[in-house]
Amino acid sequence: MLSRIAIPSLFMIAQVLAHQNLHQFWVNGVTPGYQVGIRMPPSNNPVTDVTSTDIVCNVNGQSGANVDVIPANAGDTIQVQWDVSTHPGPIVHSLFGPVSSAKSATGVGSWFKIQELDYANSQWANEVLMANAGKFSFKLPANLASGEYLLRSEMLALHGAQTLGGAQFYIGCMQLKITGPGGNCSPKYSLPGAYKATDNNIYIPDFYYGFVPSTYSAPGPAVATCTGGGGSQPTTLTTSRTTTVVTTSRSTTAATTRSTTGATTRTTTAAVTSRTTTTTSRTTTAAGDGGGGAPLYGQCGGQGWTGPTTCAQGTCTYSNAYYSQCL
């Protein structure tokens, strides 16, 4: 009888330990502190209702009035640290903003995805974090408008995805004040609204431990491309050349009139000189130094990708079967 009690108890403990929270993050290797700058939920339980506002920044995540706003720059490296979990699934990071105040932003509305790691190199994203003490690094886009943002970290556990409503979302929202050169990022997606319980990357009837997907991408759209702002722009160089053309015309008229009285009248017209100035302008347009290929942090490859496969800046780096990025 005791053994019957012990086995399910151990199973329950394992399940609790597999639940997870985001506890800390670093900006270029510097942390504001343990659980500082993060809207911490009341527990490490998952969100399973994708239509609830809890899917945005977790339970009680609608306000960050008592949470610090941490400074960062566009292009900075962010490292997050989660509780480790054996539950297979992807990790996704998205931004909401810029907004006037990260503390008062609910996060309900339009987001854009800046990073995604699914199943790559025979590993799920959670396995990558397990191998690195729960830590995971990525870069903020280089082309971001200055302002305050919510940075959303999402880990999706798929071990229960064979049941409708069984997929488990673990979410942590950080509050940032980002300084950037400007830019626009697309595509965008809405939370709540973009996820549906019946989506084939949330509800997977044949999912099981050890499941190896032939294709899989996390919920939401593709990773956004951010352009403009600090990107290389064409440069127009205008040069003006002024040419002075001097035209001289001389006209002399000599007329002799003899009257019947014998008097002679002579009329002389003096030389007339005219000067004409002509200005010629020449405009030369020179291309910027951006070169060809995708911009830094832009997509440069992946299954079904029809855009550029080289990078104007950086190196085309494999992320997963559907996404490579210029880093």
Automatic annotation (TrEMBL):
Keyword entries, A-Z: Carbohydrate metabolism, Cellulose degradation, Copper, Disulfide bond, Metal-binding, Monooxygenase, Oxidoreductase, Polysaccharide degradation, Secreted, Signal
Q: Where in the cell is it found?
A: Secreted
Primary place of residence?
secreted
Give the cofactors, semicolon-separated.
Answer: Cu(2+)
Taking every annotated instance into account, which residue ranges of this chain make up the domain CBM1?
Answer: 292-327
Q: Which residues form the signal peptide?
A: 1-18
Please name the PROSITE patterns in this protein's record. Answer: CBM1_1 (PS00562), CBM1_2 (PS51164)
Low complexity biased stretches: 249-286
Give a yes or no for keyword NADP in this entry.
no
- Reported EC number(s) for this entry are 1.14.99.56
Q: Which InterPro entries match?
A: AA9, AA9_LPMO, CBD, CBD_sf
Gene3D superfamilies, per database record: 2.70.50.70
Q: What is known of its domains?
A: Has a modular structure: an endo-beta-1,4-glucanase catalytic module at the N-terminus, a linker rich in serines and threonines, and a C-terminal carbohydrate-binding module (CBM).
This chain's function reads:
Lytic polysaccharide monooxygenase (LMPO) that depolymerizes crystalline and amorphous polysaccharides via the oxidation of scissile alpha- or beta-(1-4)-glycosidic bonds, yielding C1 and/or C4 oxidation products. Catalysis by LPMOs requires the reduction of the active-site copper from Cu(II) to Cu(I) by a reducing agent and H(2)O(2) or O(2) as a cosubstrate.
Q: What is this protein called?
A: AA9 family lytic polysaccharide monooxygenase
Which species is listed as the source?
Orbilia brochopaga
